[in-house]
Amino acid sequence: MSRKFLETEGPAWVAEGLISEEQRQKLLARYPPEAQALGLLPLLGSVLVGLSALSVVAANWQALPDALRLAILLGSLTGSYAAGAYFLRRGNPDLGHGLIGLGLILFGASIILTSQLYQLVGYDVSGLVAWVVAGVALSYVYGSRLLVLLTVVIGAAVQTYCVESLGSFSYATAVMVAGGLGYYWWRRPEVVSSTVLAAGLLWQIGLLIIVLHAKITWFFVPAMLVYAAGDWQPNRPGGWALQGPPLVAAYLFMFGLATFGETDTYANVLRPPLLPYLGALAAVLALSVAGKRARGRLDTLLDWLLLLPGFYLPGGLPLAVATLVVLYAHAGSVLARAHRNEDPEQLTIGAVLFVASTMVAYFKLTWAFLDKSLFFLLGGVLLLSLSWYLRRRNAQVLAAATPPSSPAPNSASANTSAAPSAPNPETPPRNA
């Protein structure tokens, strides 16, 4: 149940006499208002204004004197920060944070243009790292999800430039994003910030794998370390949001392995040394299990099914069957957890995963001899049976949770049963 549902249905319950207005207010008090979603208007406004200013200045940049160039850079930068601080003091956080974000964008543009102006060394990334440091600092100072998003994007852009243009990995950038924003996430585990941070960390991890020329399956060791951090987060929504991108990446890999994977063909890409890889993955698994046990979340342990190293199996039928078993088991675990927690969103996700697994099973195993109409018939029967079973279980749970109603006794019998019979003073007591 959510506050939005109570706000929508509560007045009707009061009108029908199911609950009183006082009870409705108590229910609303149990579900405080959720944090507002990230405002896209300040973000888009900051980006568009920044791009507009950059395009105008860039078109005439070479014709401007050096002093005027510096004045434009410093004036736009200080003006954005000053205007943002002004609107924050006036109680307009969306516009204020948007202008602060614009100032952050202009700060990075100033670093790049100043480097070009004075012909600084092109392979020195210290200025770009300073851009990331400024983003992390502003995120702490203002506590804005917009600034967190911009900093993650800036970190990804700086790292991409280092890898693509310089052929190196900026560990300072990765440490600032993972450490600086990671601690920010631990203290303020908002859903949007958690998801954005996890996606940014996965991008950094992917670039590191590219630079190191490692097997791509090494990607999942640090990726699942991000997942394990979500297990230790006391705030459950924030922890789940951080775990979403790593789980999506693991599922897409397993899905692709089931659909296209012939590991005999791609063994040079997928298979790292067995013992070091399994040892590193087992260490992350132990950390995740400890977090789940500490926070009471062992029901999500089956998420690790997606990390079973099936790519060590030979290609063909053994690989297809193994990956399909994993996909079905994972979909079943999601459905079971959704039913147990009465979570409709997880139930929808589990149903989609189940259908996707069934489609892969058909195309990989039965395409050659099972007619399409029969496949769709079997799939429909399976889904209808699953729906009937879940509805039946839900009805049983509701029936068990509802106390049985008994007819109210009449007043005479109630009085008789309520008060014990007193002895008649005129009647002598019986001998024992």
Keywords:
432 residues; mainly alpha
Can you give me a brief rundown of this structure?
With 432 residues, the chain is mainly alpha-helical. It is 75% helix and 0% strand.
What would your notes on this structure say?
This protein has helices at about 5-15, 20-30, 40-60, 65-90, 95-115, 125-140, 145-165, 170-185, 190-210, 220-230, 235-260, 265-270, 275-295, 315-340, 345-365, 370-400, 410-420. The protein is mainly alpha-helical and about 425 residues long. Among the domains are: about 1-35, no CATH class; about 35-50 and about 60-155 and about 185-200, no CATH class. It is globular, with a radius of gyration of 30 Å. The termini are far apart.
Note the topology.
Elements: H1 3-15, H2 21-30, H3 40-59, H4 66-89, H5 93-117, H6 126-142, H7 145-166, H8 171-187, H9 191-212, H10 220-232, H11 236-260, H12 263-270, H13 274-295, H14 317-341, H15 344-366, H16 372-401, H17 411-418
Helix pairs in contact: 1-2, 3-5, 4-5, 5-6, 6-7, 6-8, 7-8, 7-9, 8-9, 9-11, 10-11, 10-13, 11-14, 14-15
Write down the overall geometry: globular
Main beta sheet strand tally, sense and closure: none
Report the oligomer. Answer: single chain
Please, what is the average pLDDT?
A: 79
Percent of residues in helical segments?
over 70%
Portion of residues in beta strands equals under 5%
Give a count of the beta strands, DSSP E runs of length 2 or more.
0
Q: What is the terminal separation in angstroms? A: 62 Å
Number of helices: 17
Query: SSE order in H/E notation?
Result: HHHHHHHHHHHHHHHHH
Low-confidence spans: 34-39, 408-432
Secondary structure class reads mainly alpha
Rg over CA atoms, rounded to whole Å, is 30 Å
